[in-house]
From TrEMBL:
The lineage of its organism: Bacteria, Pseudomonadati, Bacteroidota, Bacteroidia, Bacteroidales. Keywords: Endonuclease, Hydrolase, Nuclease. GO terms for molecular function: endonuclease activity. This is Restriction endonuclease, type II, LlaJI. It comes from Odoribacter splanchnicus (strain ATCC 29572 / DSM 20712 / CIP 104287 / JCM 15291 / NCTC 10825 / 1651/6).
Amino acid sequence: MENIFILMKEFLSTLSIWIYRTISVYKQSHNDNILESKEYQSESRGRKQKHNTLLDVIIALRDFNRNNQNYFTFVAKNVHSGYNKINWNKTITSSQAIIQRGSPVYIEPVNRKKMVNFDEELLVIYFSILNYIRETHGFSFEINIQYPLISCDKLKKSYIDRNLGCRRLKQIKYKYFSDKALRIWDLCYAFFDREYKIAMNRQSEDYLLAKDFEHIFEVMIDTLVSGNDKQNLPKELTEQRDGKLVDHMFVGQGLIEQSDLTSELTYYIGDSKYYKRSKNDRTQLGDKSIYKQYTYARNVIQWNMNLFLDGDGNGAHPQLRDALTEGYNPIPNFFISARIPNKKTGGGKFLSFDDKELKAQDGGVQLNRQFENRLFDRDTLLLCHYDVNFLYIVSLYGRNNKSAQAAWREYVRKEFRNKIQGTLNRLYTFRTLQPRDSMDCYQFIQDNFQRLNGKLYRPKSDSNYLILALMKDEDSDIWNSLKIKSATIKRETAQSKELLETLQTHFYVSDPFELETEFHIDSIDNVGTLEQQPKQEFRNILTGLVRRTDADYSDFDSHIAKTYTMEKIPTSINVLDIRYFLPMVGGEIDGYYKVEKVYLGTKNGNLCLKLNLSSFISLGSSRTPIYRIKMQPGELISNDLMVELYEQRI
């Protein structure tokens, strides 16, 4: 029981320091009305009081240092006066002299020996304590005296943990008589022994009061996660036109593939919540918070689309939309909640200020979509929820150590990516598609756009491969938690199998893989290309003449003909290529027919070619003469040539 009391007392003492430091650091950069402050007025030599927190001692140390700089300078000068002066008596009696120009010169003079000075030792301990507090807790102390200080590591392990500080101070206490020296001794001893009583004026305490700590928590997370990146983003992204303010935002590696190009990165959007936790140690998010977070992402996507549609991208911003597949780079979207590791599940991390881990909250995945099985659709938005150790966050922010903050920022950004990738791996199966040689894969994508929409994404604008994401059916629990019906999962997975078979005709389809930190693709020989191929000229329109004297002239003239007989079978064409028929009615054209059937027949006992016609397709209201001028019957021409003939462009 006593150990628990000591542990809790130490915890509260440390927590009070970090809360104080957090508010102090916040105050340096945010001059708003959520803080109230009162400066510590003066030190007191009144009745000794027992201190409940280390913060009291640190403030007393800080104020004594601030108000007694002249005293420290005076002591240092006295301590060092006379050092390194020559002891002439010993030099003359113990050293040999060289006579130069009639005068003795001593090559090895004897200096006065430096004795242990207890005033200096006390100051070394005092300034070592200040340096330790500065390095450990981020307080700003002015240390102008150049003493060889005790290292922070030695002070912690020996002077604090092994109580060497108290023992050594007791050994040298009898040397001090002045009020200043005794006050320094008191302060140092109180630092090493928290039960020691020192004099403080309890009515003139230094305090900072925060009326809205939730806002300070948001600022802490933004400083530690976004850094300066958020400030460098366009204001339209963080201060959106509908009045919404994004808490945290930065540009980072995409979830599919890593890249060094800004255009191939993505936006990370976060919101921090400082809410009371439920009995099951979860933060309950309201519908309004979730809706706002989705709206943030939608606004960012639309802003990004407008940027590139207007031609203002210039490679300086991530390009979320892939022009080939019209797929969208998924946007990592997340909540951050504060938590303190509890005693039951925290283990050794209980009440720890050193636990920097980012943890996914159980059941903290939300999915908003308009269509199933379309990860790369612009309206498919994944929202994850993570916890950070509140104690670690306040200590890291309060320490105000930029390098330590940058190190955690790098760690937590990688963790966001890794953990969101892990969630996607539970939801989807990923494959790479590489084009087969001699296949028009570009046209295949256009022709099958409806089936492929939202399932394909090209992670790099010049990559010769695509990423295919299909709904996973192995882990139904996560789909159930997202309220996706089992019938929907079965239907989509069945359609996915059919789609895979279709894709095999034009692509090399890889085995399933999981998203990882580094993306790897199999090397395949003789792959094709995803680039648009030159449009092939399909000659599938047969020309034919309808004379004014023919029995079916009126039908062709009225665009209601159903058959056509070509008495002379053309030998220079492949009749199997015939898809359409262009009748030169009286030598003129104004439209063509779709051919339903091509077959051989007889007319007047002679072999002939017969066509069954269906719908008539008009070229225009006027008629253009082409017979014998530009075209003969029995030729196969392309659609482009037919249009040029009709418009008299050739």
